[in-house]
Amino acid sequence: MGCCGCSDETSSKVEPTTPENQGTPPTRHSEQVFVTDRSCTDILTLIVLIALAAGYAFLVSNTVNKGDIYRVINGYDDCGNVCGRTNTKETDPQFSCKGVDKTRDRYLLITVDHYGVKSRSCTSNCSDQVVFLNRCVLNQAPETGSSIIKKLGLENFYKVGSNIFSKSRVQEASRDLTVAWRELIYLLLIALAISLGILIAFRYVVQWVVYIVLIGAILACIGGSAYLWLAWYAEKKAVDAGQGLLDEDSSQTAYFIYAVALSTVTVITLLIVLVMRKRIALVMQLFREAGKAVYAMPALLLQPIYTYLLIGFVVCAWVYCMLWIESAGNIHMKKNHVHFEKDGLLIASRWYNLFFFFVTCEFLLGCQHVVVACAVARWFFTRDKKRLSFAVTRGFGYLVRYHLGTVAFGALVIGIVRFIRAIISFVQNRLKQYDNDLVRGILCCCQCCLWCFECALKFLTRNAYIETAIYGCNFCTGGRKAFIALGSNILRVAAINSVGDFVLFLGKVLVVTLTIVSGIYLVQKKEGLHHPWVPIAVAGLFAFLVAHCFISIYEMVIDTIFICFCEDCEKNDGISRPYFMSRGLMEFVENSKKALNYLDHPPSSPRS
Are 539 and 268 in contact, with CB atoms under 8 Å apart? Predict the structure, then answer.
């Protein structure tokens, strides 16, 4: 078998086919779908990713040799001396003033004169000024530099620095977190309990959850439309009677436009619900199957925790490397001020750092998707679920041994698209100072199109990972299989991605809302707090992270079960080749009556 192709399905090892609950005779076997005899996929792409990592290490080492991270953190004066640090002297006599001990002068003071020339100096205290990021920030912009500050868009910076990030407020907020640490732990446990409760509800009472969501959305649309039409009628009646404002000053036209728009949305929503009413039942059944899978493999709930901890580490590493890159440069003198000028390699390092960050984050998310897909697909295509052991561990083994190249392929594709979007955003920001509406409009359209393309690409990539988890094929083959499977079930996919994702989103909102309400109840009685909103906001952030870790795993599990359902329908017929799916899912296949009748009344002497 080739190292970059799709494994041979006919030579795969067959999983145990002991009947679970379908009444299938052991002499009849379905066509095996889940492949266990695999080979490495997309190994060339993995080599490319390793080469990118090596290049990144070279660029970072170059910036470390030319940079000093404290130049950004502490700032430096006109001679290049870093505030709060002991500085080394330069051999060039042009920079003779560099090399002064500034350990006592911890803060950087920046002043602007009438001509807009900035002067940087280190000082031991900021007197009556605000300390923000080790800088002395003026409480009010000086009159001499107000025009320059306004041009630079920094007028709000002083307000933020003096009002929110003042030293006293930061100290008070830190003290509030210290005082309310017990309440934060309680709220974290509450968020965890609510998330687990929602997972249980998704399994046992998901039909009520879905019905409540759909009915609530329909009633909200109808009620809003009725209110807007009544408001329009009342405004129109007042204008006709001469008791209201003139036509051009009244809200009659606005109410009419809003009413027509919301009525259109209401009609579209009703039509979608009517057309997809049968598919919505499939969504509820997929939620039940996802609950069974999570119950059988509770280690699935730990995968997002590992992934987001690693992503958090990557974010910290990216920020750390970014500080090194921004501090690096070749020393030179400009207008009697020392600056550190970047060469072409350092400028390239800035963009390379961003690109590698995108690729790394997508790679970690892709690894999680493949592990979950492998575990769930193996669970789906195993008849005797009791004999299933270490499914998540084996999924991780499949990933590391065979499919790191496939994940690298998807990460590089998405990373390139995101990098192009970042470049366009950079150009857009640079063009703000120029009055060229045509170019800005073109770039805005390109940005919008690329965003839509990225969303579609992420969706297709996730499903390509699922096909790779099932068949052990490479990325392109998995993408083709996923496109065919999704294209032949487009209405079911629409129902899953609209109703299912909306239900999961409401679950996250519910967790955050209940946690914040509980936080208000707990924190408002706590003594010694200066800003109660600080611990409540931190609790809300933690609640969202907890809810996202536990609830978002359902999205990948549901998508995997749906693709497995489509592949099971494609490979088997339920009679001569029995399905792997449960009886609940059998109700949604075309020959469901024949298949269910065969399960209830199997032939006495089946043919082998």
Answer: no
R_g of the chain, CA atoms, integer Å = 31
* DSSP string of 397-412, one letter each residue: HHIIIIIHHHHHHHHH
Q: What residues pair up with 111 in beta bridges, in sequence order?
A: 119
Long-range CB contacts (< 8 A, 24+ apart) of 207-216? 207/284, 209/503, 210/280, 210/283, 210/284, 210/287, 210/499, 210/503, 213/499, 213/502, 213/503, 213/506, 214/273, 214/280, 214/499
Pairing of strands 130-132, 118-123: unpaired
DSSP state of 107: E
CA distance 512 to 532: 17
Report long-range pairs for 158-163 (Cβ below 8 Å, ≥24 apart).
161/130, 161/132, 161/137, 162/130, 162/137
Q: Is 295 helix (H, G, I), strand (E, B) or coil?
A: helix
Q: What is the pTM of this model?
A: 0.79
Q: What are the distances in angstroms from CA 425 to CA 139, 229, 418? A: 32, 41, 11
32, 389, 501, 608 from 16: Cα distances, Å: 10, 12, 34, 17
What confidence tens digit (pLDDT) does each residue in 125-137 have?
Answer: 887 677 777 888 7
Phi-psi label, residue 260: left if phi above 0, alpha if psi -120 to 50, beta otherwise: alpha
Q: How confident is the model at residue 600 (pLDDT cuts 50, 70, 90)?
A: low
Element (H, E) at 120: strand 118-123
User: Cβ(460)–Cβ(454) under 8 Å?
Assistant: no
Examine the pLDDT at 458 and tell me if it is beyond 70.
yes
- DSSP symbol at 333: E
Closest CA relative to residue 485, chosen from 392, 563, 377, 538: 563
Handedness of CA 351, 353, 355, 357 (dihedral sign): negative
- Of 42-56, 195-209, 312-326, give the lowest mean pLDDT range: 195-209
* Residue type (1 letter), 309: L
Q: How far apart are CA 449 and CA 444, in angstroms?
A: 9
Q: Which amino acid is at 35?
A: V
Q: Has residue 465 got a pLDDT over 60?
A: yes
C-alpha 568/C-alpha 575 separation (Å) is 13
Mean pLDDT lowest for which of 43-57, 201-215, 234-248? 234-248
Distance in Å from the first CA to the final CA of the chain: 30
Look up tokens 């690729």; give the residue. 359
Residues in the chain: 608
Give the pLDDT confidence of 386-432 residue by residue, as tens digits: 778 888 999 999 999 999 999 999 999 999 999 999 999 988 888 87
| DSSP code of residue 82 | B
Secondary structure letter of residue 110 according to DSSP: E
pLDDT, one tens digit per residue, over 20-43 is 444 444 445 556 678 888 899 999
